[in-house]
């Protein structure tokens, strides 16, 4: 039964024992660095630059409304009747008319332009906050891959230590067999156990390579099998965040909600500005038949200029309905924020419960490992004296390795639960 736990625990452990010299000579990989790299490496991270350029173009269009708009018009027509003078012998205008003109128009006063520019800037801020909220999910993906690799890294250390111990006992058993002091089956049993643990080690190394490859794909960094993964020391940060968990608003989603409310308010101001009058200056110069003199029969040039006031005080309730729609949008944002806060609260409850449980469990793990080490020490001495069989020694040694694997797994699970809690509330894992 105890042996059956070993394969189950192959996917959960932490760095146990001293780090190999080769790993110490290379860079140490930190979780916080990987999280930032994953966010920067995501293709969606460039959306902020694209959104900024998009907003700049729209603002340029709004500013261009200050400049005159110029248009060219041309028209030729035939009409069934013309203006006539009831005087005998008076000339009648032609029924065919032609006109070509150049018109210019410039807004002198437009109270909606400023609010529309502010609404566009608010739209950019909301879009940038939305992208940041979407990218934040990459941090949790990095957490999962990082702690999987960390667990398997520690599993490898535990297995290697156990294999080294069994190799010593195998050499002792082989010497006994050569001296005729024991049966060959004892050495064969140790050799079979070494082969089984070698298979487990190969499985662990393969899984670790997959986890490191996933980390590399998420972050765009090259992480080799010899790199050392640093265990985050996030205990103090969890304690501090736990005290203020109900008031924390560090997740980027909260910034998105705030920018969303600001955007609605800017749109409301822009809608209100549409009810105010606008003043424009206009001018037109043209050439046609007739010109401004409708009774003329020859082609003539002309020009005209003036000031125009536009105001639509009656819109059949369109502006008021738009205001009501924006007020409803404000309520939607408020409810989304409330639902998001409730979801975070439920998530942190589970994370904190796991942190408390694992902290208690690790204390018991230390005592269990100490007791198992004492048993193995005594069994090894008795085995060397020929008092116990190799099968009994292997069983006791397997019990010790299982206890170490469990302890190692719980340590990493505790670090992962702490990191998951900090990531959930929007704090960086250091």
Word description of this protein:
- 64% of the residues lie in helices and 12% in strands.
- The chain is of the alpha+beta class and 430 residues long.
- The protein has 2 domains: 335 residues, Outer membrane efflux proteins (OEP); 69 residues.
- The strands form 2 sheets. The protein has a 4-stranded antiparallel sheet, with no helix packed on it. It has a two-stranded parallel ribbon with strand order 1-4.
- Helix 8 packs antiparallel against helix 9.
- The chain is elongated.
- The two termini are 39 Å apart.
- The N terminus is likely disordered.
List the SSEs and their pairings.
Elements: H1 5-8, H2 21-24, E1 28-29, H3 31-41, H4 47-64, E2 69-78, E3 96-109, H5 113-179, H6 184-219, E4 228-229, H7 235-243, H8 252-273, E5 278-289, E6 300-310, H9 318-384, H10 390-425
Parallel strand pairs: 1-4
Antiparallel strand pairs: 2-3, 3-5, 5-6
Helix pairs in contact: 3-5, 4-5, 5-6, 5-8, 5-10, 7-10, 8-9, 9-10
């Amino acid at each position: 039964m105890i042996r059956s736990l070993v394969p189950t625990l192959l996917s959960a452990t932490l760095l146990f024992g001293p780090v190999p010299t080769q790993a110490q000579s290379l860079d140490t990989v930190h979780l916080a660095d990987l999280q930032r790299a994953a966010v920067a490496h995501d293709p969606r991270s460039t959306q902020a630059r694209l959104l900024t350029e998009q907003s700049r173009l729209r603002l340029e269009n709004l500013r261009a409304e200050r400049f005159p708009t110029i248009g060219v018009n041309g028209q030729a027509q035939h009409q069934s009747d013309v203006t006539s003078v009831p005087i005998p012998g008076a000339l009648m205008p032609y029924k065919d008319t032609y006109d070509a003109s150049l018109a210019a128009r410039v807004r002198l006063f437009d109270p909606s332009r400023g609010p529309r520019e502010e609404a566009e800037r608010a739209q950019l801020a909301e879009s940038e906050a939305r992208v940041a909220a979407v990218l934040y999910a990459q941090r949790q993906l990095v957490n999962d891959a990082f702690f999987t690799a960390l667990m398997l890294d520690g599993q490898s250390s535990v297995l290697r230590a156990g294999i080294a111990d069994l190799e010593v006992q195998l050499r002792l058993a082989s010497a006994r067999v050569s001296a005729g002091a024991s049966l060959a089956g004892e050495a064969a049993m140790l050799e079979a156990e070494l082969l089984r643990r070698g298979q487990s080690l190969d499985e662990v190394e393969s899984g670790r390579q997959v986890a490191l490859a996933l980390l590399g794909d998420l972050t765009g960094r090259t992480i080799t099998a010899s790199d050392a993964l640093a265990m985050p020391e996030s205990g103090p940060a969890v304690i501090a965040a736990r005290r203020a968990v109900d008031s924390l608003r560090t997740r980027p989603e909260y910034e998105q909600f705030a920018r969303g409310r600001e955007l609605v308010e800017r749109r409301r101001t822009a809608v209100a500005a549409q009810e105010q009058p606008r003043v424009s200056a206009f001018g037109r110069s043209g050439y046609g038949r007739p010109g401004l003199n409708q009774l003329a029969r020859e082609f003539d040039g002309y020009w005209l200029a003036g000031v125009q006031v536009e105001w639509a005080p009656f819109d059949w309730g369109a502006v008021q309905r738009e205001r009501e729609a924006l007020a409803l949008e404000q309520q939607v944002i408020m409810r989304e924020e409330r639902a998001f806060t409730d979801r975070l609260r439920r998530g942190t409850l589970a994370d904190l419960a796991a942190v408390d449980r694992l902290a208690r469990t690790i204390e018991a793990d230390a005592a269990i490992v100490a007791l198992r080490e004492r048993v193995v020490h005594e069994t090894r001495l008795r085995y060397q004296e020929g008092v116990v069989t190799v099968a009994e020694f292997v069983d006791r040694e397997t019990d010790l390795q299982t206890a170490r694997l469990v302890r190692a797994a719980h340590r990493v699970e505790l670090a992962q639960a702490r990191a998951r809690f900090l990531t959930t509330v929007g704090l960086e894992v250091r």
